Amino acid sequence: MSDSTAVDTRNDLLEVEDLRVTFGSPGLRGRGRVLHAVDGVDLRVGRGRTLGLVGESGSGKSTLGRAVLRLVPIRGGRVRVDGTDVTALRGRALREMRRTMQMVFQDPYSSLDPSSVIGESIAEPLREQERLTPRDARARVAELLDVVGLPASHADRYPAEFSGGQRQRVAIARAVALNPSLVVCDEAVSALDVSTQNQVINLLEDLRGRFGLSYLFIAHDLAVVRHIAHEVAVMYLGHVVESGPTDRVYDSPAHPYTQALLSAIPASHPCDAGTGKRMLLTGDLPDPANPPEGCAFVTRCPFAMDVCREVAPAVTPVEGGGDVACHLQTTGPALAGRPLGAGGVGGVDAAPRVAP
Ligand SMILES: Nc1ncnc2c1ncn2[C@@H]1O[C@H](COP(=O)(O)OP(=O)(O)O)[C@@H](O)[C@H]1O
Ligand code: SF4
Ligand SMILES: [Mg+2]
User: Fold this and answer.
1) What is the Å distance from ligand 2's center to 244 Cα?
2) Residues near 236 by Cβ (< 8 Å), separated by ≥ 6?
3) Contact call for residues 19 and 238 (beta carbons, < 8 A)
4) Which of 20, 34, 35 most suits a substitution to test ligand 1, by most atoms within 8 Å of the C-beta?
5) In ligand 2, which atom is closest to the CA atom of 327?
6) What is the rounded distance in angstroms from the CA atom of residue 110 to the CA atom of residue 108?
7) Sequence spans of domains, the chain
8) Burial level of 40, CB count in 10 A (0-12/13-18/19+)?
9) What is the DSSP string of 255-298?
């Protein structure tokens, strides 16, 4: 998406501050494993805007999305929606808040009951929250199917009777049924072929314009994200390592990890960062229960310096918009050097391994 207008932070719908989510427990005498899935994340999504959240599998994207909706326990930090701190909401207030935030998953089967006709699945939240009569619910379902480009007669079909793209349209209809302000799309188009991806993205764009929705759009595929996101945040091992306007991040990535991810987009793709250099991302994501000291990316970074092994880099502004957490921003590239031995990044013209 080419619109990279400066964000008016007073108009943010979602504000996430120093968010932390852990799994596991320290156990007796601290000998258990604590996995830091989200480790001090800050991000904002403007009203009617789309923030793309990218990063390798296991970097914490889904956990972050689920924490925003309070679907996993929050260990620390703040989530504000429309100015309200939702971190500590309980009971009825939490249910009310959840109505304003919905999630669309990669696999619509997780939100659609295979044994119910889709009209039932779409009507379920309406009946629960708005206490509609069966007749009114049916009319509303027909309206929602129309909104997502499906005929009303499809209400009587089962999920298995739909194609992948149609099922995702049904899941979107269900998500927008209660007029949410934020929709978290977690790999929502990742399982679809390219032309169906484009159709579903066009639908999401259409709905954003019609209903003023904001999206947190999670995807491991950077090419997809460029088409829909106004801003992008790049996640690595529980941290946001770079964020900013989509065009700036894609055209001038500041973090070595972002550069490596962008190198994974085939050169012929129009979204190629165009640096002419391919960066090979080797090695695996470190164990989030045992992260490296200093910079999280140090075990795979070709520019790692001594300081990177000891001190976590501060977040600093980037020319052209956004922020990056990398010592190169403060010490300058002249001090960078010494490719790491094992697990380093190097090489030219080889596609990096970036797992979905
Ligand atoms: N319910 C859970 N219990 C324990 N560990 C989890 C749970 N959910 C996610 N994780 C771990 O948290 C880390 C981040 O996972 P996830 O948020 O799914 O990443 P992503 O969506 O970027 O692939 C991974 O190491 C994953 O194994
Ligand atoms: S240069 Fe240092 S701080 Fe920057 S990404 Fe590499 S290891 Fe991290
Ligand atoms: Mg995920």
Assistant:
1) 18
2) 55, 56, 59, 257, 285, 296, 297
3) no
4) 35
5) 3
6) 5
7) 9-100+180-335, 101-179
8) middle
9) SHHHHHHHHTS-TTSTT----S---B--S-PPPTTSPPSS-TTT
Beta-carbon contacts of 180 under 8 Å, excluding residues fewer than 6 positions away, are 99, 100, 101, 102, 213
β-bridge mates for residue 280, sequence order: 346
Q: Which ligand is nearest to the CA of 38?
A: 1
Answer yes or no: are the C-beta atoms of 216 and 17 closer than 8 Å. no
Q: Which residues have CB under 6 Å of ligand 1? A: 23, 35, 37, 55, 57-63, 288
Q: How far is the CA of 194 from the centre of ligand 3 (A)?
A: 20
Structural element, H or E, at residue 74? none
CATH architecture of 9-100+180-335: 3-Layer(aba) Sandwich (3.40)
More confident residue, 97 or 216: 216
Distance 309 CA to ligand 2 centre (A): 9
Tokens in use for 8?
Answer: 């008016």
Residue 16 one-letter amino acid: V
pLDDT tens column, 141-177: 999 999 999 999 999 999 999 999 999 999 999 999 9
pLDDT in tens, 114-130: 999 999 999 988 887 78
Partnered with residue 210 across adjacent β-strands are none
Q: Which of 21, 62, 63 to mutate to test the pocket of ligand 1 (most atoms within 8 A of CB)?
A: 63
